[in-house]
Amino acid sequence: MPDASAFPAHVTNHAHVENDLRETSTPAGVLRYYDVGSGPVLLFLHGSGPGVTGWRNFRGVLPAFAERYRCLILEFPGFGVSDDVGGHPMVTAQGAVAPFLDALGVDRVDIVGNSMGGGVGINFAINHPDRIGRLVTIGGIGTNIFSPGPSEGIRLLQEFTEDPTRQRLVDWLNSMVYDQSLVTEQLIEERWALATDPETLAAARRMYGKAAFAQMMAFMRGSDAPLPWAQMHKVTAPTLLTWGRDDRVSPLDMALIPMRTIPDAELHVFPNCGHWAMIEAKDAFESVVLAFLGRR
Length: 296
Fold this sequence. Notes:
It is a single chain. By secondary structure, the chain is α/β, with parallel strands linked by helices. It has one domain: Rossmann fold (3-Layer(aba) Sandwich), CATH 3.40.50. The protein has helices at residues 9-15, 54-58, 62-66, 89-94, 97-104, 116-127, 152-162, 166-176, 185-195, 198-208, 210-222, 256-261, 277-280, 282-293, and strands spanning 22-26, 29-36, 41-45, 70-75, 109-114, 132-138, 239-244, 265-270. Strands 1-2-4-3-5-6-7-8 form an eight-stranded mixed β-sheet, sandwiched between helices. Strand 7 (239-244), helix 12 (256-261) and strand 8 (265-270) form a beta-alpha-beta unit. Helix 7 runs antiparallel to helix 8 (166-176), helix 7 crosses helix 10 and helix 10 runs parallel beside helix 11.
């Protein structure tokens, strides 16, 4: 966790950084979140994977955004912070956003979504077009065009989920970044502690266990419903797609369909960067996204 002195005074005074985890009761269960800064509301939606939390995804960029926005970081059910309510955590996440905003009395937001969170943001933008201003995604959406699937990162994630060992966690973390020096002992340990929590691991297996993954693929092949990537033309919000050029979890060719089919979409690719653009390309990410959000 960053030292509190790294945050602007109003951020530390308002939220006491990580210690200020809040909660609210909603029809989607008790949801926990962070509420930092002031201004227009900016909602951060985290990705999936062993030991993930919204705080860990966005703590590094929070100071820059909290200077201009009221930043809400939502912790999705089933990832070890908000309570697990059963079901497939990715589906549960899609149903959590609107009740969360309703509980806080927030009518309209901009959204920054990492990987799975980007998909949740797109779902929200399609179903609640009057409640979203601008949408930013970080990798993780679309579908493979040229690259094989599942990707290297997803295969390593499945292997960890099936048989969680520390080395498998390290292998997966290394696949998330271009610069592997970012995979520090501190990162490994904090991820390991949450990823091996029995309840959190059980939820992960409902997503990434090999049987669950195969079942999901079979369901999508047999369903008449359009796949998520085939509905992106319904997004009316101005959208910024951000991607790491060297993403080994969701390869860059996945951006092609969202870039082409979302009517008001633009794509920014960060060089020498893996799946965590907001961490690995932090300064550039802050600059690009703040400029996009401020373009009214």
